[in-house]
Amino acid sequence: MQMAEPKGKRQKTCLPICSFHQPVNGSQVKQNYPPSVEEAVCGLITLFYEVSYRFQALAEIFEQDDVALPRVSGYFRKVAEEEEKNAEILLDYQKERGGHYCAKDIKKPRTESVRNFRQALELTLSQWKTVATFLEELCALGKSCTDPHTTSFTRKRLLVPKMQQIKVAGDLISNANRLGCTDEGQVSFGEYLIDRLQEELERPFA
Q1: Which tens digits make up the pLDDT trace of 69-107?
Q2: How far apart are CA 159 and CA 138, in angstroms?
Q3: CB count, 10 Å around CB of 20?
Q4: Type and span of the H or E element at 133
């Protein structure tokens, strides 16, 4: 049976730990799965669902008649699907290790201040950098808890692809700057050019 970790040895972290996480009676025997890692993974599953919901909201902004950037909207639809897939990857991993997920209500994301593609990109880049930091912390937590499986899994399946997404978002912002897009006011002509010509909108995970 999995022994509880001594409280004094739990690593201080900024990870979105599931504070209400409790072991489920009758669950399968855990495969040397540290409780602090299980709690962190549970919290990250919820985070990925929240991020997916936020990107869905951004996609809807660019579907509106007064904005109408269909390929930009499609870009955010794709990344929303990818974040939901990430949540499911972690959910399957949690089950595989004998842990469980505490389902939670996801609050409606606040995106009212977003009025153009540049603002949406800045929000995206900030969100992904935060997620990448959490994934790096999960890798460190796995290492400190002598759980190399979690460290390796997180780095390969989630962290490396996330760093690639961050690069693509950074390239999109650089191109937006060259075309004169700003984070002030409504959609500009440069953003219409991006919507028509930017190849990264079709392959956001290159």
Answers
A1: 788 888 899 999 999 999 999 999 999 999 989 988 888
A2: 10
A3: 9
A4: helix 117-144
